[in-house]
Protein: M55 family metallopeptidase
Amino acid sequence: MRVYITADMEGVTGLVGAEDVQMGGRDYERGRVMMTEDVNAAVRGAFAGGASEVLVNDTHSSMRNLLVEHLHPGVELVRGKPKPMGMLQDLDAGFDAVVCVGYHSRAGALGVLSHSYMGHEIEDMWLDGRPMGEIGFAYATATALGVPVVALTGDDVACAEAREWGHELRTAPVKYARDRFAARLRPAEEARAAIEEATAGGVRDAASGSRPAPDTAPHTLAVRWQSASVASQLAGIPGVTISPDTEDDRTVRATGDLPGLFRLFGVFVNVAYALTGQAPYC
Structure:
């Protein structure tokens, strides 16, 4: 059993504010410890569930957040950026299960540190007309590769969003949102026990269940930006157009297979950062 763990930071145990998760923030170093411990809980769960190999991808911001020297010794780590496939770098059809650790709800949701990839530059995203954020995009892309997403950890809003994409996946809510920068926290030991249990159960589910059929059909990605300038620049990429069925000039769309759209979206984000230079939670 090969298990892939994609690890974000906003949905980690105990973290609620920008200074917990932004490099240079007063509580960022503490946040790195908390993130590492949540990932280690998921790794323990993966091995308990029958994994023979675990690969972890550090996916938050600089993608250099996890404390390597404190990470479970039985895993390999994908660290740093740029990565062509970003939050799913090195995921392929050879894996048997995906686990999402520390994930958060999409832009516009009243979840802890909610956003979609960029703090407020991305207002909305859709896949084939269905609203989505980082959870939906990861779920759809992994599934298209034929790899099931079996577990997700984050706040209760993120967990509910994940179950909308895959009712069968297991979730571990580590905190309960009270607003975008406030939450009721589960005790750390209890939260990590829940992460370990959900991951172990999800990996066992993957071992005994059927895999999703690989999906090579074309899909349509649409992204509404806060800035028309970003949309205008992205429209220069072959195959990317300003969406013709909206009243604004800030929504771009592209059609293709899901792994390809996921990689293309990474280019979108790089262009947007170059144009705006905005911090994630302005």
Remarks:
- The first helix runs from residue 18 to 21.
- DSSP finds seven helices and twelve strands in the chain.
- The domain at 2-118+134-208 is CATH 3.40.50.10780 (Rossmann fold).
- The first strand starts at residue 2 and ends at 7.
